[in-house]
Amino acid sequence: GSGDWSAVGCSSDLSSGINAEYGGCTVAMSTTLIAGLTIKAIAKHKLNFASFFFPAGAPVGLAPLLVPVETISFFSRAISLGVRLGANLTAGHMIMHIISDFGAQMLASGTIGGGIGGAFCCAALVPITILEMAVACVQAYVFCMLTTMYMKDAHELH
Question: What is the spatial distance between Cα 135 and Cα 125, in angstroms, rounded to a whole number?
């Protein structure tokens, strides 16, 4: 009917399909990665690992403020690493779904204007797909670089 939200480009998939698939997978992957690096750092550095949460050279009086901030910062790495990757994948796929659904609806209208508009939407998917591939490459690079930096931190403790 007129209140049916599925007529709005792929809105039925926004909360259940793409978003849960990429967001959940990337956060799980990054959380597992950070957990493994934390275990490695604790195994290597033993109690010295606690120094990770208090920067060298910081005044001891700032410890009550710095330790919680550094702890939150350390554990938010997993979430930010996964959310960044998942959000970019989801955004690109949502744009492609919305444009393709809009184009399909225009083509299905059977009018000349709908045919022209639908063909334009289909043609617009080519550069958007190329852009999506470029974004995926950049995000893979960022994920790998941040993971490497986190590995270095776990190995050397800052």
Answer: 15
pTM of the model: 0.72
How far is 105 from 30, CA to CA, in rounded Å? 38
Contacts of 30 (CB under 8 A, 6+ apart): 77, 78, 79, 81, 82, 85, 143
The residues, ordered by sequence, that sit 6+ positions from 144 with a Cβ below 8 Å of its Cβ are none
Among residues 52, 48, 49, which one has the least CA distance to residue 71? Answer: 52
pLDDT digits (tens, 9 = 90+) for 85-126: 888 888 888 999 999 999 999 999 989 999 999 999 999 999
CA 151 vs. chain centroid, Å, equals 19
Measured CA to CA, the distance from residue 70 to residue 95 in angstroms comes to 36
- Tell me the CA distances in angstroms from 64 to 21, 48, 72, 151, one per residue in order: 39, 18, 13, 27
Which ranges of the chain does DSSP label H, i.e. alpha helix? 18-45, 63-108, 112-156
* Predicted confidence band of residue 21 (pLDDT cuts 50, 70, 90): low
Q: What average pLDDT does the chain have?
A: 82
Phi-psi region of 46 (alpha: psi -120 to 50; beta: other; left: phi over 0): left
